[in-house]
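Hi V.,

You were right to ask for the full record rather than a summary. Here it is.
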Amino acid sequence: MHGRVKVRTTAEQDEIKRRERAEKVKLYKAGMSLAFDMREKGEKNEKGLSVSAKLLAPNPDIYTLWNIRREIILHLKTLKSDDEFAQVMEDELRLTEICLKNQPKSYGTWHHRCWVLDNMTNPPWKTELALCDKYLSYDDRNFHCWDYRRFVVKRSGVSAEEELKFTDEKIAENFSNYSAWHLRSNLLPQVHPDPNGLKPIEDNQHKHELELVTSAAFTDPYDQSAWFYQRWLLGRHTPELRITHVIATKKVVCLSFNRSVSPMSSDIMVKAYGDNAWQTVDGEISSYVWKRTFVDATTVSEVAKVPVELVVREDVRQSASLAVDGEQACYWEQPVFEASFSPGVTEVLRNVLDSCQTLLELEPDTKWPLLTSVSLMQAIDRKKYKAEVLKYLDLLAKIDHLRANYYSDLKSRCVMEHQLEEWDVGNDFCLVSSGLTALYHSQCLLPARHVDLRQNSLARSLPRLASLQFCQVLILDENGLKNLEGFPSLPNLQTLSVKKNQLCLPENIEPYITLCSALINVFIDDNPLSATHEYCNGSFVKVPK
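Predicted structure:
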């Protein structure tokens, strides 16, 4: 055995490590105790910086120590010359670099570095950009570094064009760089805005981006970074604010918008008959539907003579003339859900769809090509691809079951949009047994008087019914309702049918319909409640046994 190196046993190694850890903990506790004692005594000096530096170097996530350092530095600023203070700040930058080597994703370190630069007379912005490049070369998904780069770019005045070129480089290095794609989506509207202001970016660049991201997506169909970016390119753009419906009676005027807006907004004003303040119909701060009541009853003909004007930032954007229809004065616009793309962009979209279809032939259960195909079909021709879109959404709910409810809601949106495009506002609105799990675009139902939504799953969507201000008959049979919590105030509702649900007690219904002042009939057949109660003269009464 002589001459051989002694090999320590596992137990000996564990004991050595235990002692080392114990010693480190002892030193750490002593250092923390000293740092807090000095802070409590108001000792703001170089010793405090030295103590906290030794603690932070191996463990930079102790946020309180960074706060202590900032307190000391601000105090030293009042005592030192400009050159001396500049040296203090240089030392801080060096400390943060040491910390980043040990923990490149330390919130406290990156934040402290931002603070240091903001308190320097001449921050070395070029050096900081190089630092970002270095750390992103180590890990191109280090979102702490991406955030820091945005800070440096903003402070140093780097142009959006230069940053866009930087995203080109990072994406070329790695198609899977989600942060680079995300930054690109923020920069493109600045560098290549749509001249008409209707879309995020202009047509030629839009075509280029679609071609670029398609190449990335098909390089690795299972990576979601490029698919997310592609969905942004295909996404619906925020439409210009418009009034889509106006209905006026002797007592009230209601109007709906294509976007949710607040009556309290100083930028938006609607000029119409009456002086009372506008209110949202659902009691929320912002809503798709507003109403204004009249103090004194007026005639519909008087209301119809007053044009409705939408004023945005003192600019008249829209004027609507009401047409008298019996006891109402009305205005409405046909809803438009179709995206508008140029022929050139549409051709690119068709090519991308063909590529998705080819990929799905090889791998039919791949999530992202399926979901992207849905977006592409809706962008190219919603009516033509209606059946395929609904089929794909059903398939997605099966293969991506953790997000099944999302796909069900997305399908509900598609079904609702197709029905609204075909609906004549003079007729009843019916969406029976349509698989609805959410009620989208309910503001478009403002003129509806008879709404039939039986055999769906709308228990979560009762508050969305607030738009039915002129509805007289509402059918919610077979919707899995256990109660009517969230049911809105519908002043013209006369008949409510909730047959074949799961309503057991009067308390499941009665408290939620008290604000429906015109309500006469509530049909509760084939609910557990119907065996013991019936609705009569505005309340539920027990049925004699």
